[in-house]
Amino acid sequence: MIMDINPILLASAIMVASTPILLAAIGELVVERAGVLNLGVEGMMITGAVVGFIAAHETESTTLGFFGAAVGGAVVSMIFGLLTQYLLTNQVATGLALTLFGVGLSALVGQGYQATNQVPVTKMPIPLLSDIPVVGPILFRHDGVVYLSLVIVAAVFVFLSRSRAGMILRAVGENHDAAHALGYNVRRVRLMAIAFGGACAGLGGAYISLARVPQWVDNITAGTGWIALAIVVFASWKPWRLLIGAYLFGGVTALQINIQAMGLDIPVEYLSMSPYIATILVLVFLSGGRAPGSLGRIFHASS
Amino acid sequence: MTDTLLKIQGLTKAYPGVVANDDVSFDIGRGEVHALLGENGAGKSTLVKMIYGLVKPDQGQMTMHDVKYAPTDPRQARATGVAMVFQHFSLFDALTVAENIALGMENPPSQRDLSDQIRKVSQNYGLPLDPRRTVGVLSAGERQRVEIIRCLLQNPKLLIMDEPTSVLTPQEVQILFQTLRKLKSEGTSILYISHKLDEIREICDTATILRHGKKVETCTPSDKSARELAEMMVGASFEAPKRSDRQLGDVILEVSNLSLNAADAYGTSLRGVTFTVRAGEVLGIGGVAGNGQDELLSALSGEAMTPASMVHLDGRDIGHLGPNDRRLLGLLAAPEERLGHAAAPNMSLVENAMMTAADRKGMVTSGFLAWGKAKQFAEDVIQKFDVRTPSAQNAARSLSGGNLQKFVIGREVLQEPSVLIVNQPTWGVDAAAAASIRQALLDLATGGAAIIVISQDLDELIEISDNFAALNEGRLSEIRPMLGLTVDQIGLMMGGAHDIEVAHG
Amino acid sequence: MIQLEKRKEPSTFWIYATPLLAVLLTMVLGGLLFATLGKDPLMAIKTIFWDPILGEFAFYYRPEVFKKAAPLILIAIGLSYGFKAGIWNIGAEGQYIIGAICGASVALAFYPLEARWMIFPLMILAGVAGGVIWAMIPALLRVYFKTNEILVSLMLVYVAEVLIKAFSIGLLRNPDGHGFPGSRNLNQYSSSANLELFAGTGVHWGVVTALFAVVATYVILAKHQFGFFVRLTGESSRAAGFAGVNANRLIITCFVISGGLAGVAGLFEVAGPAGQILGSFPAYYGFTAIIVAFLGRLHPVGILFAGLLMALTYVGGNAAEAAMNIPSATIQIFQGMLLFSLLSVDVLTNYRVRFVAARGA
To answer: At what angle do helices A41-59 and A7-33 cross, to 10 degrees?
Structure first.
């Protein structure tokens, strides 16, 4: 039964299933390290999903599709950025509004594109490495976005722990008043972080509509953005733990689909709710890091 | 000492409804320690914020070495050689000492070179510090060292220090003064902001006194008596609180072996705190900030609960009771943080009166609130404690610090407690308000209540306490009569030398 | 250059003016959106906001507005307690669904027994219980494990959606339904039907309950210690602790109220306008109610008006879809924009906007 699952194919599928979550989560991680809680990940993802799908459809290039998705995600994230940073709105409420808005917007924009199938994203096996038995098919026979997501995670890790700009970003997230007193532009740092988060979420969304499914249907992200938020908490705001979290969830999702396909006796509905239940369990039992000191607080420089 | 480093001419800064600085001019000489003296709200912070580039003046100008100096942000100020040690530290808890220091520098060297530099400077100036430690776990004194070293690494021409001794023990103050003297001998100018007159007379060459945003005078502090300086600062003399002779009664509150774990990672745990307070007694609890003051207050007020027997009031174990149950038994408290702890900032004074007086003043009947009674009580507090506010319907945050503090203390005092615990009762409050608050506490004690004053202001504790103890890393020293204690002994108690005789021996 | 300056006290004028300003702003933005879709913006606005109340077919639309407003107001009133206190139950949609499932299950268990005096009250109790149980999961996890209640309550929405799909083709499927998904129609079972109390008005038991909830909440917030504690906690949790508020008990109570009201809203919907348990039953009311709560400034009377307004956009949106071929997704965008506008103009309440001449060279 369980033996019927080809472990190599499954591991490879996990990589694919994890990529959207990983992309959205690494973006949100940077945003939260800058002290901003953007609950609009789901809205930015679904915007990216629809923009990417349309861009790819119109230009017949998935590369341009992903590019468009990143831009689209960043653009809608700026609504959140302008409201929270300039008009000092409540971040929880604004993030929710962004999600509601994004879901509606994508449904409207995507109307003419319902269920149109798209040319799948081309795989980019890495020469030599992809021929290694077991490891090759699992790690090195994916499309470019899978590699890109890993590169981004590594880059964020280096940025946060090694670069001065990353240190300033952490400082802003830890204590925005002190950062301001030292002369750092809290608002600019945060806006850039929010735009980065939007672009990553957009990419993640587009990966769902262009590579994983690949088609456009309303509500295609189905809560992935929220799971990404949970992963950031699980990861205690650390990039490398994020990787573990995302692959854990990718694993649950991929396994669940595999078991469904095998037609086991387990009712389908219990399987399809498993990623959400798993998220709750992880939040309850495996989280415990300290959040950035200024997370979610409104910054107003009283000059 | 003769040539001028920074010339300040006619600086003016107005905010709606208040002129923070009005035509202020003075010079700071090279290698001079220049005091900026004034009450809370006199305009000291606004002035230094202008020098440090955080605020732009409306009028006036500054020249540094005869060159126009108009910093648009702190980085420009730092590039010109101005550095600042903040009163509320501009530090980042989750970052290391080295990272915190790098953030305050324009072009920091690599982390390893920086760590070496930090070690070198900290040795040179007698400020031991490990660059790899996380700032969140440091004591207040160590945190100040981080700020000072951050400044020193940039070889500043002018070092601004905002109330630097408020977080130090008397011994640590002396170490700081040695550092300042060394800096001065090397030609660094220091702008020293304080309201502690003795310190200023000890360390400063010149003093500029501000009152209501205007300069009163620039003088040589050692030529003036502390009283003269105080009068220039406050404008009028007023009476120091009077303590009448009183008999201490029976023990009302007994705290035995009180231990409480810190609420968060960077808090302080209380360990085995033991003391008693008698009716009519004022017990002063001193100590440097962050040694468990907040935790002690919350364990006594009931915000944090403990095993029942650790707190014992009037023959009852109350450690397991919440704040309202303790209030009903006569134990009241006033925490340090006015906005957001003792009072709700956006709520009216009426609602703030309801906050703690609901049960004792009969404002609740089967869950429903009698707002009329709350309004009456709030107006009572406003009138008896001379709280300046247009009405009881105004929001707490619209009041000045002194007025809100009078309201907060008055709210508890008028509920006639048998035990009152206050934390930093006059912190950030102008001298007149501070005097009236201290008088109210003394009067309450005369009426037979037991008072516990937790404070970092030693002068205040010396003025009003009968007995004294110090908190250090969550432990309480032995309790000693205030009368006869020297500042040195107090300093040792604050520093954790629990047995003074041994420390002397 | 524009500068924001914190007011000493929130402006009373703007507290009342901002929701109106937000609605106007949304109409302008919405008009632009309709224009880009190639529709006549004025016509669209009129079709959405005017015709359902005062147009030719208002007799048909008005009852619909009440029916749509009832769940929105019920849920939003429940959420307003938590939101005031900084407790974020974002999963009302899930509690609404579970309330519907539990309430409907009671009715279906008794079918075809005719005993409305017993069955209908039991359904209401079951609806409340379902919502409360679903809300207790995030509440208890928050209290005992400090788990983020936003994420947990939200995850449970997706679980609830899966559950209702499963029940509609499994346990609760109509045995006489020729294999089609969906339960028996509760509207056609006289012991369970949540019918109009006055024919043609749209006023069913949910509408009455919603009005009752508005009045009760008004009294609780103004006069009762619990309401004061809720407001105090939202102001400052530390000050609330000092005033003797038990934070954990408050969290649980807020979740009980919001879960219970969302659950009963689900019950009234499934026994009334929706009629049956079906995969398509979830209608996003639980999320729209969040907007309603904010638009009503978390004040019960405000929520009453905001709920009616939001119901109007649904009904008007349907009308606009029929009359002008405006896609239904537009309404969702419209609601998102409304929340954005409200949050933006809210800045005027707490800050004074000053125009400062740029200084310098």
So the answer is: 120
